Amino acid sequence: MATRNRTVQYKKHRDALKSVRAPLSSSASRSGGPVIEMVNASFLRSNRPSYTPLSTEEDPGPSSSGAFTIGLPPVWIDDSEEIAANIQRAKVKMAELVKAHSKALMPSFGDGKEDQRAIEGLTKEITDLLRKSEKRLQKLSSNGSSEDSNLRKNVQRSLATDLQSLSMDLRRKQSTYLRRLQQQKEDGVDLELNLNENRNRLEDSEFSDVGFNEHQMSKLKQSEFSTLEREREITQVVKSVNELAQIMKDLSVLVIDQGTIVDRIDYNIQNVATSVEEGFKQLQK
Fold first, then answer.
1. How confident is the model at residue 219 (pLDDT cuts 50, 70, 90)?
2. Short-list 185, 192, 177, CA closest to 228
C-alpha cells in the first residue's frame, strides 16, 4: 500500500498554531510588530459568537472583556526575507550574465549591440538588487526592539556575508570579461594597423591605382567599428566594477564584527578548557 509522509506538514501546522495561541497582549506589544485584536462580538442579538478585528496598530490599548491579541512578526523579519529573496534573484541573473558574456565574446557577423544591451541590462539589474539589499540591511540594526537586538545582529551579519560574497563573485566575473574585451580590442587594433600599413604601401607603389578592393575596405571599416564598440563596453564594465567595489566596502563594515565574535568565542572556549583543567587538578589533590 502506498503511503505519504506528512510529518513535515503536520509540524508546520502545529508550529503555526502555537505561534497564534502563545502571544499575550503584553508580550505582543513589546515584540515591535503590529498587533491584531479580536473580540467576541454579537450582532443582531445572535447567540453565535463572531470575532471582529478591532485594530492593527502598534499599541491596541486596554482590551475589552473576552478579547485576545495576535502578535505579528516585527518589520525587520520582512526586511531580512526580502534581502534573502533579492540574493536568490541576483544569483539567477548572474548565471544569465555569464552566458551573455560568453555569447558576446564569440565571433559573430552582427554588430553585437544586442548582446551588449543584454549585458548592460543584466549588470544593472544585479547591481540594483545588491544596492537595494545593502540599504535594507543597514536598517535592520534600527528596526526592532532591544529584546531581539542580538538576533537581528546575527541575521544582519549572515546576510551581509552572503551579499559580500555575491558582490565579490560578480566583480571577478566582470573583471574576467573586461580582460577578454581588452584583449579583443588590442587584436582589433593590430588588425587595423596591418590593414592601414598595407594601404599605405600600395599607395606608395607603382600600382597605387589598384588600391584596396571592396572586401578589404569592408573589413577595415568593420574593424574600426568593433574597436569603438569594445571601448564603450570596456568603459561600461569598468564603471560596474567600481560600483561593486563601493558596495563591497559598505558591506565590509557589517561583516567585520563577525571575525571579532569568532575570536571572542575561541577565547572563551580556551578559558573554559583552562578552568576545567585547573578544577580537575584541584579534585585530584
1. low
2. 185
